[in-house]
Design goal:
Layout lengths: L1 E2 L6 E2 L4 E4 L2 E4 H7 L7 H8 L1
Antiparallel strand pairs: 1-2, 3-4
The structure holds zinc ion (ZN).
């Protein structure tokens, strides 16, 4: 398990993302991302 550097939640490494050099969870990453709204299901399927 790895830990999000922003909110501190524990996530598995495959759910960890890099954001400006920090390892963050998907939620924090999505919160920071300035991108057009997309369905979560679509994103998750793409990552896998
Ligand atoms: Zn987080």
């Amino acid at each position: 398990m790895a830990k999000c550097r922003k909110c501190g939640v524990e996530v598995s490494e495959k759910d960890l993302y890099e954001d400006h050099g920090l390892q963050v969870c998907e939620d924090c990453k999505m919160r920071n991302a300035v991108s057009p709204p997309e369905s979560c299901a679509t994103r998750k399927n793409m990552i896998k």
